[in-house]
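Can't paste images in this forum, so I'm doing it all in text. The chain is below; anyone willing to post the predicted structure tokens underneath?
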Amino acid sequence: MLVTIEKVIPGGIGLARTEEHGALFVPYSLPGMEVEVKIVRPGKNFSWAQIVKVTKEAPGQVPAPCPFFGQCGGCAIQNASYEKQLEIKREIVADALRRVGKLEIEPLAPLPSPLSLGYRNKVDFSFKGKEIGFRPRESFDETLKIENCLLFDERHEKVLAGIRKLLGSKELQDEAKPDFLQYLTIRKSFADDNFLVILVTQAGEINRTAWLKAVQESFGESLAGFLWKRNLSKQEKKNEQDLIILSGQDYLHEKIGDLDFKVSAFSFFQTNSLGAKVLYDQVQEFADLKGTETVLDLYCGTGTIGQYLAAKAKEVIGIEINAQAIEDARENAALNNLKNCTYYAGAVKDVTLEHRDELAETEVIIIDPPRAGLDKKMRQRLCKFPNLKKLIYVSCDPVTLARDLMILQTYSFEIVKVQPVDMFPHTAHIENVTLLVKSG
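Text version of the structure:
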């Protein structure tokens, strides 16, 4: 069957239409590409298809630089030039605003990532038996053997080779048991070029000396720490330690602009360190603080966005449900000598209600909710800040953003600008920073 791809939809999937099968979802295809496909998953309203042959290349199509493109589930649009990727991502956002939000506003041209390759500060590898790699697309129990990932620092190639050599040796203990090895996470600091390696397993024992040797030989003096995390039951935790530092420390230091941040092994931090500055600069521009404003940072995580704005605000108040993230936020505020930052741990809708009198002076609110966006109660709560002037919505999902913006308009919020920011080149993911002002 020969089809022409109309557009790329969220998730990086190409969309084509036929009379016989209706909508066809075609992975790894681009707008304007003509492809011969076969149906691999028929459905009533839509079907999934697989490319058999490309009969006409798409505008902006290029050879994918990664040899694992089409197998790995990560980079859905790596076969487009970076300029074309930005066009595709803008159209994904625009389509969501039109189709889901019924909004007429057009998003601005996406701000590019400072790096299109090697930009990630964190990568997760999975194990399957004695193999380590990535999960193939739509597979949760297989492992795709890769030698390297172009989105991460090239030095991880050596550690993968060292671990494969170790897994093929006789220097193993419980590592040989099925499903004992679970994940290997590598985090990188762009500030000091150091690495943190975390091995995650089931309960049991590993050859600590052999693992430490494999990791140290790979990173040398750049290894800040090597951690072993065991997923223990509640009963096992009473007698055993679940997190063991095999070498060094359990955190990294990172910088965004002039600020220093301590990034612990399991805390959230923007995956693109250099791109985070682009994102935060956009938030800062939209906030346009004069030094007299109280800023409320909702779903604040480890507090990085609010702290980036703190020097130009009277006060920053952050709220986050993850208690460990709030501890990190307080520690980072102290690290940067920010005395005007206050943090509360708890559900955002509960804390904003409990502290409504204290928060009444809030003039600027920053929200960076989970992918699911805002729930009904939180959308309604945003209307009840008597002095609110600006709402800055940071979103990682154009569809839930569009839904929330449509509803917020009915609560007397005016949408001023939607600025996409590309934090994840070669993938279909796109961040958006939206400026809304309170009217009436």
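The radius of gyration is 23 Å. The first strand starts at residue 2 and ends at 4.
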